[in-house]
Amino acid sequence: MLNIAFVFAAVHGPSILEQWTVYLTAGASLVIVRLVTKKLQYSVMFHMAYSLMSTVGL
Question: pLDDT below 50 — which residues of the chain?
Fold first, then answer.
């Protein structure tokens, strides 16, 4: 699970430790959602909602 979260974080290109922490946490959350629900669509929706909130500034 940690390796998938690391890949997720690396793809998003963090440059400082705080960004790595945010992206690793988000990646781990997406993996957990996928494992619990057994459906990729919920992880995609979670990612979309997270991205929207980040864009809007919530």
Answer: none
